[in-house]
Amino acid sequence: MDYFLELLLGGLTRGSIYALIALGYTMVYGIIELINFAHGEIYMIGAFTALIAASVLTMSGMTGLSVLVLATVVAVLYASAYGFTVEKIAYKPLRQAPRLSPLISAIGMSIFLQNYVLLAQTSDFLPFPNLIPALPFMEPYSQLMGSTELVIVLTTAVATVVLTLFIKFTKIGKAMRATAQDRSMAMLTGVNVNRVISNTFIIGSALAAIGGVLIASHVGRINFYIGFIAGIKAFTAAVLGGIGSIPGAVLGGLVLGWTESFATGYVSSDYEDVFAFCLLVLILIFRPAGLLGRSTAQKV
Amino acid sequence: MDSVLNVNGMTMDFGGLRALQAVDLRVRQGEIVALIGPNGAGKTTFFNCVCGIYEPTRGDIFISPPAGRRRRINGVKINEATELGLARTFQNIRLFPNMTVLENVMIGRHCRAKAGVLGAILRGGSTRREEQEIVDRSYEILVRIGLADQVDDLAKNLPYGAQRRLEIARAMATEPFLLLLDEPAAGMNPRETEELEQLIIRIRDEERISILMIEHDMKIVMSISDRIFVLDYGEKIAEGTAAQIRENPVVIKAYLGEDVNA
Amino acid sequence: MKQVSFLTVFLALFGAVCLTVVPSGSPFAADTIKLGVAGAHTGDLASYGLPTVKAAELVVKEVNAKGGILGKQIELLVEDDVCKPEVATNTAMKLVSQKVNVVIGHICSGATKAALGIYKDAKIIVISPSATNPDLTQSGQYPNFYRTIASDDAQARLEVDFAIGRLKVKKIAVLHDKGDYGKGLAEYAKKFIEESKKATVVLFEGITPGAVDYSAVVQKIKRNGAEAVIYGGYHPEASLIVSQMRKKNMKTLFISDDGVKDDTFIKVAGKYAEGVYATGPKDVSKNPPAVAANETHKKAYGSDPGAFFLNGYAAAQAILAAIQKAGSTDYAAIGKALQTESVETPLGRIKFDKRGDAIGVGFSMYQVRKGVYGEVK
Amino acid sequence: MKILSEFRKSFFISLWFMFLTFPILVIRVNTIEKIVEWRWRNMAFIGIGSFLLSFVWRYLLASKERVRKRAEAGEGEEVKPISQRVLDEPWVYRPALVAVGLFALAFPFLFSSYQTNIMTTALMYVMLGLGLNIVVGLAGLLDLGYVAFYAVGAYSYALLNYHFGLGFWAVLPVGALIGAFFGILLGFPVLRLRGDYLAIVTLGFGEIIRLILENWNEFSFGPSGIANIPRPGLFGLKLSLHEATVYLYFLMVALCLFTIFVVNRLRDSRIGRAWIALREDEVACQAMGIDKTKTKLTAFALGATWAGMVGVIFAAKTTFINPASFTFLESAMILSIVVLGGMGSIVGVILGALILILSPEYLRAFSAYRMLLFGMTMVLMMVFRPQGIVTNVRRIYKYRERETDGKPLQA
Lengths: 300, 262, 377, 411
What we know:
The complex is a heterotetramer.
Chain A: H1 2-32, H2 39-59, H3 65-91, H4 100-120, E1 126-127, H5 147-169, H6 171-181, H7 183-188, H8 193-219, E2 221-222, H9 226-241, H10 246-267, H11 272-286
Antiparallel strand pairs in A: 1-2
Helix pairs in contact in A: 1-5, 1-8, 1-9, 1-10, 2-3, 2-4, 2-8, 2-9, 3-8, 5-6, 5-8, 6-8, 9-10, 9-11, 10-11
Chain B: E1 3-14, E2 17-28, E3 32-36, H1 43-50, E4 58-63, E5 71-72, H2 78-84, E6 86-88, H3 101-109, H4 117-122, H5 125-145, H6 160-173, E7 178-182, H7 190-207, E8 210-214, H8 218-224, E9 227-232, E10 235-240, H9 242-247, H10 249-254
Parallel strand pairs in B: 3-8, 3-9, 6-7, 7-8
Antiparallel strand pairs in B: 1-2, 1-4, 4-5, 9-10
Helix pairs in contact in B: 3-5, 3-6, 5-6
Chain D: H1 2-26, E1 27-30, E2 35-38, H2 40-72, H3 82-88, H4 90-110, H5 113-138, H6 146-164, H7 168-190, H8 195-215, H9 217-220, H10 241-267, H11 270-280, H12 282-287, H13 292-318, H14 328-341, H15 346-362, H16 370-384
Antiparallel strand pairs in D: 1-2
Helix pairs in contact in D: 1-2, 5-10, 5-13, 5-14, 5-15, 6-7, 6-8, 6-13, 7-13, 11-13, 14-15, 14-16
């Protein structure tokens, strides 16, 4: 039983990690129906900037929570900047282009950013300091779950709620929904679509950066490639839950996390990813819209 | 029993929303039938049900091709419907923009040819003959439709009216016995509409193709259609000749604001 | 459409350049001995390949300064294979067509396997500082292959003997990272454990490299009541697994391989690294030649040498010495010299057995104590 | 005044990029030795570079926009790109073709076996590109798992040879068939998915195949791969390395010609037109009586067939294979060949393959930046020239003037 519980919690952590990144994917897709392949790389860049900032700060003698906060701020700042720029360069010029063009351009961007970091920084793994302070009250439960993991799960939960409220109630959020519904219509009603799209990318990237800091703290090492692996998984999660829907992304993340966790626990981790991808394929075949996605009837 | 299309009590629901309510409609051999009604009355939905894009929730759709036997076609695939001899055009023009005019029509011939992958690679005598046949037939249709001099242009570079006509040519290439035109005159200037009228009549007379069309332009509807069906909120509210429809108070009520006698 | 013509012209020129800038086969004077160095020099595995290049450069500089061997200067031809088999064959082809006499490399076992066939046909001796796959020497398919590093099975053997003999564990979980190196090693470990009959393999599983979390596997280890984990793979995964085990207060012993005996591991795993065992090449840092080699590296590049530097250094010295002794660059003669004449290298005084493994080059067990790896005597 | 504002714009852009690249390009921390390395020079490069490039970028975007406007304004007579105009002129391309042919024939005798080997590799990618071109370029199905079929081919040769000692020639067609089989197997369930979903599912399949090859030792010998795969034989006579290379080269040339021949015929056939129509507008395409699934499946299977065939050759060429050779990046590389060359255009794909594969080999300086350039190419091509280096021109058909009964319908 408590083996099951442990797997459950392990899966929860994993799932929350996927979900945190998946949120960015799903938002962008919701707005411009584009699979932003480079999102994983944004997350990776977030982690790198955080690491660089953190190391510079610690070397200049700063310690404790302030490092975490400052590093996160820097990461969020830069990740958003990168997300913004990527959109302007690789996607904006392709608004009228056929569906595949921006997707290919996105793949190109992802490869480019990976190698940009590889060449500019290093190909080796860099140790990432655990910036998250150990929470004393978690001590007794360390068997089941560490403080870092707890923080990750909580952050994901909070992010989801905040994001949902944001999109429901704020002006920007409403504009986003309008744009998602019908871009040209939104434009007519005076929504500045370009700004909305930029905002989406900025918010998504910011989330990715936060994810970057937390996950890197949890994993303890980063390199230029983490974005790709995490990205694919997160994307799978997003599609699983029904891409375009925020609760869907979270659900998808959790389902994926648990699938992997239990597959490893009760079957074998040899085929961990195979399980994950099979799940994706099956979902897409039998429920193309995903678990929570609404299927759009083709207009004729 | 000479009706080529016979729709009985067709009902179409989208989730909770009912788009069509027990609609009956018949098209006889060699007729031009118009389907009119205010926006959102369910005209295009009706089309989509008939040619297999949606499967109607209830009711039957029977076709009896002059050549073939009578059969029920509820929920056949789009392409099957076409093979059976139902060809359509689209409200918002759907050509293959980056293919030449000729090729667009040649695509129409696709379902009447059979060369497979191997045939294409080996390009044996039969394949070559078939290919030439496709080209010639398509060209011929283009000549008849009056696009002979734009044959090698890209479809996307045609003027609007010509694109509409090309869509009709493409549909004709599938050798239908019933042609479904979805607002063929939309966005045309009076002269183009004039030509279109002639075209439709000639298609009926010379190609022996029956025609069912959705149209908002009352002028063309009234002048060429043998019978008219009126839909409103998914229900058929009237049926009859141009004269009858013109007088029908229900129709006038439905069209309140819209000028029927144009 | 000006930009189109601009772009196409540019690309056309680009292509033309590619086709015309053909490096000529062998423009070098014939009276040099050509020493090829092949391995990963770019890409994500570069850090494994470059130290060997530096080693070769240093050795060659030294030898040439002494007037070369057989009265000829030594010339280095460095080629990149990014550790990909398909690229490695091209690299090998290139070196062959440049008429190299001997080759130091390749770095990764897979790439080495792919390239060896080509060298074999061209009758060229290859000596690798880091390709540890047992088949390379044991299958007997590669008579032209030698290496200055012990093969994986030796490492696995050491790990297993240590676990069973010294640590007296009965239940062992064997994990690997599904990679060429890690999985091969793990399979040997499994084999040896089962043969020994003194312990049982309670878990044999491949973990997913790069995954964000290994708690499930860790739970599994715990559940199977393993007293020790033998892990085949590299430090990035190892560090996460160890940390997660320790965070769950599991005392399970962790024994791993050369891929983990790396200071980055200690840095990443931090306090959790304490007590971890890892096999690594015999500690030769005290050998005078090794000290000297490291010194020259410091002087030349102003930094500490990287992975396999000493092995590369030894490989270069051994092969050149062999040519010296053989008195020619003839395939058979060099081979014979390598197997008969022993030579002083940073790894000690070595010569090679019939299969091509260096005699006296082996592994020893290390343990992390107070944040550093120390040899377990 | 305009100039000034342009300058201001570029100035701010360069500032922005200096800011953007600051942490990654300028700072480098060595966490082990606790040293921070400041590389200010990079910042200068970025500043100047982005300043200049921003002009080019804006100029190109503007002219692209102009072209689009003109096309919309009706006078769609877009000027053909140089490459196209050249290719249209018989007096240009006939001699060119002959020259290329002669060069191809003479190549192995002019250059070392290394060069020949590289060229063989390039030709393999030409074939892969043309194969994927059927799927992506003609049928418009984005397949990100193409490498899976490549792997299938390679492993079918390696394994059939290992277990049953089947030779290259025996397996070449078999590999192709197995490839096709997998194409249908994988294609059937997923082909009804919308474009980008399809892309992801194929990516998933690619990964699954690789993971299975990695994990299922009993079947595929796992990550340590299969070594000593024999090179293609020539009537059982023993070839030296050089001879084998030359032989393989000519083999590839022949196969490439074969591929070109087939793809070309397919493109101008009933099937090919159906593919293109499908790419242009699915619903309309079906309304024309074309069976969507069947058509897509044919494209998918044919693409897979080619991948399988090249896979066999790949195994025979490297004589060693392991799953590491069949990663997503490989798929991406083949894709970028098609993209660079021009979707649907045969000449384009050939050029694309030669450029992308040969340039890093010969311009050694680039080799480190190889992937970087791949990525950049994909983005830039999509933004500025989605139709690729060589636009795919529609064929002009010969039609007989026939007596239509009476006068045309329209006067």
